[in-house]
Design brief:
By secondary structure, the protein is of the alpha+beta class. It has helices spanning 2-12, 37-44, 48-64, 72-91, 96-115, 130-138, 197-210, 241-250, 258-267, and strands at 23-26, 31-33, 122-125, 156-164, 172-180, 185-192, 216-220, 223-229, 236-238, 281-283, 287-289, 299-301, 310-312, 314-315.
């Protein structure tokens, strides 16, 4: 009977148990240029009738400005050619992929520097010796050193695509794909200026892999506290503390004590903790923890705190 209970508990544990294992990504992140959505928008944003109407309006405007009617068509063609030439110059040559890769790494490092998590769950793996790196940089080459004896440390690959956004204002539409060794993939997308778009993607990536894992274990004094989460999700909400307590008991766990909530909150969202600020948390025996109501005490009977939702996770 005990075995059946343990088997049921294992089946009911969340599917995200190993979701955020640290990843070592290959150092080179290629970005492949896709369809120019700006040109596509220019070609298909309006019907032929609308294009003819716009052309007629341009002709009338130029005539009113004093243009020579015999030269109007040549003038319009010259303006179109100049616009196309400027776009071709802006997109000519290589380098956008290198810019996006460098911006991704710099933005991700900035996140780590600012938030200071105890463990770094995203690293870029580069087995190249320093001399090989220096040689590649001197020759203006991408890092391509491959030592098959060291590939065991690699457990993720990243690549992306980019295209010019349909707004035709210099924005890029960028996607980033990551596949881990288990075969699971993660995908992120953002749009913005070439020098800023990767900040949004690195923020998504950081949040994905650095926020607290469930289930996981944290050291609290001389004992270990296991964060199990709620059935189906890491953190859940309910209408009553009694319902939350009953739910945790159903998976052979319990609600945290006020001291445990506060300790895990002090760890922070990026260091295996869960911030409690801004929410009311369920406690056992129809009590709640309301960090935003510290006086006279944040620990109060549930009936004293008018909260639409009580948040909770289960521990063991």
């Amino acid at each position: 009977m005990k075995f059946i209970g343990l088997l049921w508990l294992a089946c009911c544990l969340p599917a995200w148990a190993d979701h955020y294992s640290p990843i070592a990504v290959w150092q080179t992140v290629p970005f492949i240029k896709g369809q120019d959505l700006c040109q596509f928008q220019d070609a298909y944003a309006s019907t032929a009738q609308e294009n003819h109407k716009n052309l007629s309006q341009q002709l009338i405007h130029l005539l009113n400005a004093g243009a020579d009617p015999a030269q109007l068509l040549d003038l319009l063609n010259a303006l179109d050619r100049n616009t196309q030439l400027n776009r071709e110059r802006a997109t000519a040559g290589k380098g956008m992929d290198v810019l996006l890769e460098g911006s991704l790494k710099a933005s991700l490092d900035a996140q780590y520097t600012q938030l200071q998590p105890r463990n770094r769950n995203i690293t870029f793996f580069n087995p190249a010796p320093i001399y090989a790196l220096a040689r590649d940089l001197r020759d203006e080459k991408r890092q391509g050193y491959l030592d098959t004896g060291m590939l065991g440390k690699l457990n993720a690959m990243a690549w992306g695509t980019y295209s010019y956004a349909p707004t035709c204002k210099g924005d890029l539409l960028v996607t980033l794909h990551i596949q881990v060794i288990s075969g699971r993939t993660y995908n992120y997308q953002a749009r913005g200026r070439p020098d800023q778009v990767m900040q949004a993607i690195s923020g998504q990536l950081f949040a994905e892999f650095q926020h607290t894992q469930f289930p996981s274990k944290v050291k609290m004094g001389n004992r270990t506290l296991e964060l199990i989460g709620a059935p189906g999700v890491p953190i859940s909400h309910t209408s009553s503390a009694t319902a939350a307590e009953r739910t945790c008991r159903s998976i052979q766990t319990r609600l945290p004590t006020a001291e445990e909530y506060e300790f895990v909150s002090n760890l922070g969202d990026w260091n295996q903790g869960v911030k409690t600020v801004g929410r009311v948390w369920a406690l056992a025996n129809q009590m709640v923890l309301a960090p935003d109501l510290p006086n006279p005490s944040p620990i109060r009977p549930e009936i004293e705190v008018r909260a639409n939702e009580l948040y909770y996770y289960c521990v063991r």
